[in-house]
Amino acid sequence: EDKVVQSPLSLVVHEGDTVTLNCSYEVTNFRSLLWYKQEKKAPTFLFMLTSSGIEKKSGRLSSILDKKELSSILNITATQTGDSAIYLCAVGSGGGADGLTFGKGTHLIIQP
Amino acid sequence: GAVVSQHPSRVICKSGTSVKIECRSLDFQATTMFWYRQFPKQSLMLMATSNEGSKATYEQGVEKDKFLINHASLTLSTLTVTSAHPEDSSFYICSASRLPQSYTDTQYFGPGTRLTVL
Fold first, then answer.
1. What's the pLDDT band for A29 if we cut at 50, 70, 90?
2. 65-104 in chain B: CB under 8 A from chain A
3. Is the pLDDT of residue A97 over 80?
4. I need a surface site. Which of A11, A60, B16, B95 has the fewest CB within 10 A?
Protein backbone atom coordinates (compact mmCIF):
# COMPACT_ATOMS: atom_id res chain seq x y z
CA GLU A 1 0.00 0.00 0.00
CA ASP A 2 1.38 3.39 -1.01
CA LYS A 3 2.13 5.73 1.84
CA VAL A 4 3.11 9.39 2.14
CA VAL A 5 4.05 10.84 5.51
CA GLN A 6 4.50 14.53 6.17
CA SER A 7 6.13 16.14 9.15
CA PRO A 8 5.62 18.09 11.21
CA LEU A 9 1.83 18.03 11.25
CA SER A 10 1.77 21.58 12.51
CA LEU A 11 4.33 24.35 12.76
CA VAL A 12 4.17 27.86 14.18
CA VAL A 13 7.00 30.31 13.47
CA HIS A 14 7.56 34.03 13.37
CA GLU A 15 7.63 36.11 10.26
CA GLY A 16 11.09 36.12 8.73
CA ASP A 17 11.99 32.65 9.90
CA THR A 18 12.99 29.86 7.54
CA VAL A 19 11.01 26.65 7.64
CA THR A 20 11.61 23.18 6.28
CA LEU A 21 8.72 20.82 5.67
CA ASN A 22 9.32 17.13 5.21
CA CYS A 23 7.69 14.45 3.10
CA SER A 24 8.65 10.79 2.99
CA TYR A 25 7.07 8.14 0.84
CA GLU A 26 6.77 4.46 0.14
CA VAL A 27 5.18 3.82 -3.22
CA THR A 28 5.50 1.31 -6.00
CA ASN A 29 6.78 2.63 -9.30
CA PHE A 30 7.51 6.16 -8.18
CA ARG A 31 6.99 8.72 -10.93
CA SER A 32 6.79 12.13 -9.31
CA LEU A 33 6.42 14.05 -6.10
CA LEU A 34 4.22 17.13 -5.97
CA TRP A 35 3.91 19.93 -3.46
CA TYR A 36 0.70 21.94 -3.07
CA LYS A 37 -0.29 24.92 -0.94
CA GLN A 38 -3.83 24.92 0.35
CA GLU A 39 -5.40 28.09 1.68
CA LYS A 40 -8.88 27.99 0.27
CA LYS A 41 -10.64 26.38 -2.62
CA ALA A 42 -8.35 23.99 -4.43
CA PRO A 43 -4.75 23.35 -3.47
CA THR A 44 -2.36 25.46 -5.49
CA PHE A 45 0.33 23.55 -7.31
CA LEU A 46 3.86 24.53 -6.28
CA PHE A 47 6.39 22.04 -7.61
CA MET A 48 6.73 18.68 -9.27
CA LEU A 49 9.91 16.70 -8.76
CA THR A 50 10.89 13.70 -10.78
CA SER A 51 13.97 11.60 -11.35
CA SER A 52 15.05 14.07 -14.01
CA GLY A 53 14.31 17.15 -11.94
CA ILE A 54 15.18 16.71 -8.31
CA GLU A 55 15.49 20.35 -7.33
CA LYS A 56 13.11 23.22 -7.98
CA LYS A 57 13.11 26.82 -6.85
CA SER A 58 10.65 29.64 -7.12
CA GLY A 59 11.26 32.82 -5.22
CA ARG A 60 11.47 32.06 -1.51
CA LEU A 61 10.32 28.48 -2.00
CA SER A 62 12.52 25.60 -2.96
CA SER A 63 12.21 21.85 -2.92
CA ILE A 64 14.57 18.93 -3.20
CA LEU A 65 13.87 15.28 -3.92
CA ASP A 66 16.09 12.63 -2.37
CA LYS A 67 15.29 9.43 -4.23
CA LYS A 68 17.74 7.47 -2.16
CA GLU A 69 16.08 8.47 1.09
CA LEU A 70 12.59 8.41 -0.49
CA SER A 71 11.88 11.88 0.77
CA SER A 72 11.55 15.50 -0.14
CA ILE A 73 11.80 18.78 1.66
CA LEU A 74 10.07 22.07 0.99
CA ASN A 75 11.98 25.13 2.18
CA ILE A 76 10.47 28.54 2.68
CA THR A 77 12.86 31.36 3.51
CA ALA A 78 12.01 34.78 4.95
CA THR A 79 8.48 33.60 5.74
CA GLN A 80 5.56 35.98 5.52
CA THR A 81 2.09 35.79 7.06
CA GLY A 82 0.77 35.00 3.59
CA ASP A 83 2.70 31.74 3.69
CA SER A 84 0.32 30.47 6.36
CA ALA A 85 -1.46 27.49 4.85
CA ILE A 86 -1.59 23.74 4.77
CA TYR A 87 1.19 22.32 2.61
CA LEU A 88 0.39 19.03 0.94
CA CYS A 89 2.78 16.49 -0.48
CA ALA A 90 1.51 14.00 -3.05
CA VAL A 91 3.32 11.22 -4.83
CA GLY A 92 2.40 10.00 -8.26
CA SER A 93 3.03 6.36 -8.93
CA GLY A 94 2.95 4.30 -12.06
CA GLY A 95 0.27 2.08 -10.69
CA GLY A 96 -2.70 1.04 -12.76
CA ALA A 97 -4.69 4.13 -11.93
CA ASP A 98 -1.84 6.61 -12.22
CA GLY A 99 -3.01 7.73 -8.84
CA LEU A 100 -1.81 10.34 -6.46
CA THR A 101 -1.22 9.49 -2.84
CA PHE A 102 -1.49 12.52 -0.60
CA GLY A 103 0.10 13.06 2.77
CA LYS A 104 -1.96 14.56 5.56
CA GLY A 105 -0.34 17.92 5.21
CA THR A 106 1.66 20.30 7.37
CA HIS A 107 -0.31 23.16 8.86
CA LEU A 108 2.05 26.14 8.81
CA ILE A 109 1.22 29.27 10.77
CA ILE A 110 3.35 32.37 10.41
CA GLN A 111 2.97 34.82 13.28
CA PRO A 112 3.67 38.53 12.69
CA GLY B 1 -6.16 6.92 10.57
CA ALA B 2 -8.14 9.28 8.33
CA VAL B 3 -8.14 7.13 5.23
CA VAL B 4 -10.20 8.03 2.20
CA SER B 5 -10.83 5.55 -0.59
CA GLN B 6 -12.21 5.98 -4.08
CA HIS B 7 -13.80 3.43 -6.34
CA PRO B 8 -13.16 2.65 -9.07
CA SER B 9 -9.53 3.65 -9.45
CA ARG B 10 -9.85 3.62 -13.20
CA VAL B 11 -12.83 3.52 -15.54
CA ILE B 12 -13.15 3.55 -19.30
CA CYS B 13 -16.56 4.17 -20.79
CA LYS B 14 -18.23 5.02 -24.05
CA SER B 15 -19.40 8.50 -24.87
CA GLY B 16 -22.96 9.11 -23.72
CA THR B 17 -22.91 6.76 -20.77
CA SER B 18 -22.95 7.71 -17.10
CA VAL B 19 -20.23 6.87 -14.63
CA LYS B 20 -20.44 6.84 -10.86
CA ILE B 21 -17.41 7.40 -8.65
CA GLU B 22 -17.54 6.64 -4.95
CA CYS B 23 -15.60 8.37 -2.21
CA ARG B 24 -15.53 6.82 1.23
CA SER B 25 -14.01 7.86 4.52
CA LEU B 26 -12.96 4.56 6.01
CA ASP B 27 -12.25 5.35 9.63
CA PHE B 28 -13.87 8.67 10.35
CA GLN B 29 -17.08 10.53 9.71
CA ALA B 30 -16.80 13.15 7.03
CA THR B 31 -19.27 15.96 7.42
CA THR B 32 -17.87 17.57 4.30
CA MET B 33 -16.47 16.06 1.14
CA PHE B 34 -14.85 17.87 -1.75
CA TRP B 35 -14.58 16.84 -5.37
CA TYR B 36 -11.65 17.99 -7.49
CA ARG B 37 -10.65 17.56 -11.06
CA GLN B 38 -7.02 17.52 -12.04
CA PHE B 39 -5.98 19.51 -15.06
CA PRO B 40 -2.75 19.57 -17.05
CA LYS B 41 0.23 21.06 -15.24
CA GLN B 42 -1.01 19.34 -12.10
CA SER B 43 -3.49 22.00 -11.10
CA LEU B 44 -6.51 20.91 -9.12
CA MET B 45 -9.88 22.51 -9.66
CA LEU B 46 -12.49 22.34 -6.96
CA MET B 47 -15.71 21.20 -8.53
CA ALA B 48 -18.08 21.06 -5.59
CA THR B 49 -18.43 20.78 -1.86
CA SER B 50 -20.92 18.41 -0.34
CA ASN B 51 -22.24 18.24 3.17
CA GLU B 52 -23.97 15.15 4.41
CA GLY B 53 -27.70 15.33 3.96
CA SER B 54 -27.79 18.53 1.95
CA LYS B 55 -27.33 19.60 -1.64
CA ALA B 56 -23.83 20.07 -2.93
CA THR B 57 -22.43 23.53 -3.54
CA TYR B 58 -20.96 23.76 -7.01
CA GLU B 59 -18.17 26.06 -8.07
CA GLN B 60 -18.77 28.54 -10.83
CA GLY B 61 -18.61 26.95 -14.24
CA VAL B 62 -19.32 23.41 -13.05
CA GLU B 63 -22.55 21.99 -14.46
CA LYS B 64 -24.51 20.52 -11.59
CA ASP B 65 -26.79 18.57 -13.91
CA LYS B 66 -23.78 16.92 -15.51
CA PHE B 67 -21.81 16.22 -12.35
CA LEU B 68 -24.31 14.86 -9.87
CA ILE B 69 -23.09 14.68 -6.30
CA ASN B 70 -24.78 12.77 -3.53
CA HIS B 71 -23.57 12.75 0.06
CA ALA B 72 -25.93 10.22 1.48
CA SER B 73 -24.06 9.34 4.64
CA LEU B 74 -21.23 10.58 6.80
CA THR B 75 -18.85 8.16 5.11
CA LEU B 76 -19.92 8.17 1.47
CA SER B 77 -20.18 10.70 -1.31
CA THR B 78 -20.72 9.85 -4.96
CA LEU B 79 -19.97 11.78 -8.11
CA THR B 80 -21.90 10.74 -11.20
CA VAL B 81 -20.71 12.03 -14.53
CA THR B 82 -23.82 11.94 -16.71
CA SER B 83 -23.74 11.57 -20.48
CA ALA B 84 -19.97 11.53 -20.41
CA HIS B 85 -18.01 12.98 -23.31
CA PRO B 86 -14.34 12.66 -24.20
CA GLU B 87 -13.66 16.11 -22.77
CA ASP B 88 -14.77 14.78 -19.37
CA SER B 89 -11.78 12.45 -19.39
CA SER B 90 -9.69 13.44 -16.42
CA PHE B 91 -8.46 12.48 -13.00
CA TYR B 92 -11.09 13.05 -10.32
CA ILE B 93 -10.02 13.32 -6.69
CA CYS B 94 -12.15 13.54 -3.58
CA SER B 95 -11.20 14.70 -0.14
CA ALA B 96 -12.97 14.58 3.18
CA SER B 97 -12.96 16.84 6.17
CA ARG B 98 -14.24 16.28 9.66
CA LEU B 99 -15.31 19.89 10.00
CA PRO B 100 -18.12 21.51 8.06
CA GLN B 101 -17.09 23.37 4.93
CA SER B 102 -13.81 24.86 5.96
CA TYR B 103 -11.27 24.92 3.20
CA THR B 104 -8.33 25.55 5.43
CA ASP B 105 -8.96 22.70 7.79
CA THR B 106 -7.27 19.42 7.11
CA GLN B 107 -8.63 17.54 4.18
CA TYR B 108 -7.83 13.90 3.65
CA PHE B 109 -7.45 13.05 0.01
CA GLY B 110 -8.50 9.92 -1.81
CA PRO B 111 -6.26 8.26 -4.39
CA GLY B 112 -8.23 9.56 -7.34
CA THR B 113 -10.16 8.00 -10.20
CA ARG B 114 -8.92 8.11 -13.77
CA LEU B 115 -11.87 8.50 -16.13
CA THR B 116 -11.38 7.88 -19.84
CA VAL B 117 -14.31 8.49 -22.15
CA LEU B 118 -13.97 6.99 -25.62
1. confident
2. 91, 93, 95, 103-104
3. no
4. B16
